[in-house]
Amino acid sequence: MFKRTKYIHVLLTLVFLSSCATVPSTKNPWTTPDRGYVVYSKEEAVQLEEYMQPCMKYAQETFSDAYRRFLEESPQNTTFVIEVLDDNRRNLYVEIANVVGSQIYGRIQNINRNARVKGLAYSRGDNIRLRSADVVDWLIAYPDRPEEGNLLGKYLLLRQDNLVSGPCNPQDPEFKHFRLFLENYSFVPPVGDGWQIRGENADAEVSMANLTGGGPNQVDVVYSTRYQVPKFATIQDFIEKITEVEKKNVGDTSRVSLIEHEVTEFKGKKARCVLSRQVIEDKQTLLSKSGERGPMIREILSLACVHPAEQSTVVDLVYSHRYQPGHRDPDFPDKAAAVFDSLAFTVRNYH
């Protein structure tokens, strides 16, 4: 469930998973991936533990209030997990059962080996008593929304995606919003009322939709996918390939018309990327309000990038805006740009 690092005498928080808490009937699509983090030298490990100290201190300072909110405000199937260190400074994850004063009672989740805490031996599933001063990180795992806390785990994910390099800062803006971490890339999805994550499907690794936009039949969708391609010799080859693929995906030309289609080089990333814009008219779209069919416009912006750590993989991030003629959201390009600007690639410990 948790991957260990090569250096066991180092605090290395990996990633909290939904399976570490009470698992709801269906998998929560907001959970973070199981990315292992490896250090390659003892010196790097010592520096990394030093870098984690500010967030460890923050976890101790905020633990009591977080646990109070967990008790008073959380829906069913929410769990509270803390991270502590064993006697060899290896990380242990404990699901809390009760807190009395400064004493914490819980059950160990993640040990795949025996561990000693304050000289006593423990195994996975054992009950354990700790002190609030032992906490180095905490996590509130919800069944239907992003987790709260887990700063150390998120910090390592941010390091993998080259989004931080210095010490863990509890006030970093990255901790103030939700970043969707996938296997080897990440991005910040749109926020606001109406957005719902739909998880994986046949065509995308993750998909989100907003069905409550301006018009009664307006639908905004954000999704990402990866696919394998031959290595491109030039950016023009990449542009031509993306153009070809997108034209094939337009759909039934008897009812669908491609009004505009432009693919250009995008230089805002440390990767070879192209930005695509398509405007498609569908004369027989099923209208969600009336249940009848009528004309709709679909404007699609997509950012396709060759992954810098794997040149045969393309990461494609798409923002689609469907609207009735005359009801285009003028802010749509800016909303899409905000999502595209947040795209980051996993280059550290990439396998």
Task: Give a quick rundown of the structure.
Helix content is 19%, strand content 34%. It is an alpha+beta fold and 351 residues long. The protein has 2 domains: 18-176, no CATH class; 188-345, Protein Transport Mog1p, Chain A, CATH 3.40.1000.10.
Structural account:
With 351 residues, this protein is α+β, with helices and mostly antiparallel strands. The chain folds into two domains: 18-176, no CATH class; 188-345, Mog1/PsbP, alpha/beta/alpha sandwich (Protein Transport Mog1p, Chain A, 3-Layer(aba) Sandwich), CATH 3.40.1000.10. It has four helices and 18 strands. It has helices at residues 42-73, 151-160, 235-248, 332-341, and strands spanning 79-85, 91-100, 103-108, 115-117, 120-122, 127-131, 137-141, 148-149, 180-181, 185-187, 195-199, 206-210, 219-228, 256-266, 273-286, 293-306, 313-323, 344-345. The chain has a seven-stranded antiparallel β-sheet with strand order 11-12-13-17-16-15-14, with helices on both faces. The protein has a six-stranded antiparallel β-sheet with strand order 6-3-2-1-7-8. Strands 9-10-18 form a three-stranded antiparallel β-sheet. The chain is globular and about 75 Å long.
